[in-house]
Amino acid sequence: MDSANSTGLSSNSYDIVSKEEGCSISVEADHETTCWGCGLRVLVSPYASVFKCGWCGAITKQNTLKCENQCFKWRRLRDRCFVSVVLLFMLFFICGGIWATYPVVFSISFILGVLHIIVAVILSISTLSTFCYAAFRPAGAPPTILWGSYPTVGKGGLENYTFCHYCSKPKSPRTHHCRSCGMCILDMDHHCPFIGNCVGAANHRGFILFLMSAVISMIYVTIMSSYVALHISRPLNHRQVSLLNGFANSELIFKTLKETILAFLRSAVFLSARGLVLVYLFIASVSVEIGLSVLLWQQLGYIYEGKTYLSHLSATDSEESAEKDCQNLVRFFGCPYVAAIYLPSFWKSRKSHKK
């Protein structure tokens, strides 16, 4: 066998009718090219930008040029800087939070102080370990497959594979090339500059666990910073507030609010270093908590649908084949099969997407 037809092309020429001149022109329809997957000769139309080999199933995109990525080194430097900043930010949260809260917590109750230290250490270790796992573990390379010659490539051996012009090797349907990492990533979700790595098949679970641990840690920081700040803050003068229990007009309400705001500002000016750290921890933890919660909810939604972020962007309504089910979450986190029995049935979506 020395050739393979692409999508049933049988004629060697066809006619093109010009709308302007109204004449018929005979044009050569087929031309011979070589499939990159199996090396067989394929007859394709010169106007077909994409064709599929009838033997191995490999997809060839003609006129695809390799774009040199001149910014690769700068992107890698940017990612490493982001990773360093995130690590410093996390260490500041851990050390600053413990330094700002432990004297007040231990002064209230020794048992409460010990419990606070234990919870803070557990959350710190969990967040740092999952972050390092997601940041420094390879995202997942596609499996190695034989290609290039007919004897080694069987029938349908490269079904729906495309050729990566950056890596110069086959790329499976679930694989995407990341220009920042300079490699193909299996089940790529997205490239996250804050972990300096792609989120793929090998570290996607670690990335989700990091988001969960970070959100829980931020909630704990918000609660503890508020609790400690209430104990060290100066009590405000509510003399004017007591007047509001009776008859009050707009002038009196405005005056009361003005005195309350000025009291807060005066107390903020004379805050100690511990108080300033507590204020910063509260504001930063609330901000980070909101952002990470939205990202975590979005990621869990894609996992529930059986997709990744990139597959969600490229999929259309007619191409959706994944079933929305809690079993996708169970499989993703590697839970035992027995645990799926206890999932409530109403969690499952009634709508299934089939080919």
TrEMBL record:
One Pfam match: DHHC
GO cellular component, one term: endomembrane system
Record key words, sorted: Acyltransferase, Membrane, Transferase, Transmembrane, Transmembrane helix
Group of enzyme by EC: transferase
Top-level lineage group: Eukaryota
E.C. number(s) listed in UniProt: 2.3.1.225
Molecular-function GO terms, alphabetical: protein-cysteine S-palmitoyltransferase activity
Record field: catalytic activity: L-cysteinyl-[protein] + hexadecanoyl-CoA = S-hexadecanoyl-L-cysteinyl-[protein] + CoA
TM helices/strands, residue ranges: 82-102, 108-136, 207-232, 278-297
UniProt-annotated location(s): Endomembrane system
Residue ranges of every copy of the Palmitoyltransferase DHHC domain listed in the record: 161-311
Main localization, broad class: membrane
Topology of the protein relative to the lipid bilayer: Multi-pass membrane protein
Domain commentary: The DHHC domain is required for palmitoyltransferase activity.
Protein family: Belongs to the DHHC palmitoyltransferase family.
Name of this chain's protein: S-acyltransferase
